[in-house]
Amino acid sequence: MASTPSYRLALVEAIFINIIWASSFIFVKMALKDLGPLTIGGLRYFLGFLILLPFILKSKKRPSFSRAAWLQLFIIGFSSYTVANSAMFWSLIYLPATTVSFLMGLTTLLVFFGGVIWLKEVPNRFQMVGIIITLLGTGMFFSTGFKPGEPMGIILMGLALLCFTVFGILGRNTARAQTVDTLSLTAYPLAIGGGLLLLIAIPIEGIPHASPQTWGLVIWLAAINTSLAYMLYNHSLQVLTAFQMNVLLNLAPIGTAVMGWFFLNEHLTALQFIGMVVVIVGVGLVQRRDYPKDTAGTAPE
Prior knowledge:
globular, 12 helices, mainly alpha, disordered C terminus, 0% strand
């Protein structure tokens, strides 16, 4: 995955990531029956690094990064894996899996403003309309109000969203500049963020003990939902803007809602379902471009 993908390939990768990450909220919710949220996060991300480690050791050309690049890798790992994902997993104790998945759509607005300020990635008129429609759909989803205990989950997700914004912008900037290869951009933040989270989790939640089914979920989350998904994510970010990627990820709640109904017996109201349809329309508009030369330096094909 060293070469820069075409726009179409990057878009296909992003859609596939959606399908994978839609299941993450379901599997984490199921694993919470046996393990704490910090332990799940630490195990998932550090195991994800260990899965990628043989590929790093096998590489004939060992990359050498500047101090600035290592600092970026540390910030990406700490913001996304140590703080954001642990807060998101913790929020699943208080919120339905579909709600947490849908809340991730708010990252779009934050990444939009951050991308405009720091990455100079200004959306065109179709994308601006897409933003408005996407946010309208999000508002419809939450118009039914909150149940007791859910405000705590919202606070935790607020912290997660801020850190995911840092991850989205900095990850896009690093991938676009190609100062760090895709494998390293995926593996080293996993090692940093997952390792720090394990050091925090074990004193707080104790040595992990779980059923074989739960361990199977953790290993699946590490191998497929982490190692594979983040490799595809970082690869596609060489072409897709941080803003486009995060709006496209608004489709994930559709998959989460279907799986939540099947695995967790979670149900949506009619208005929430309509809100999701509205979000899909917004995502479609965001993916319509005026086809100037791509901001990453690659012309769309």
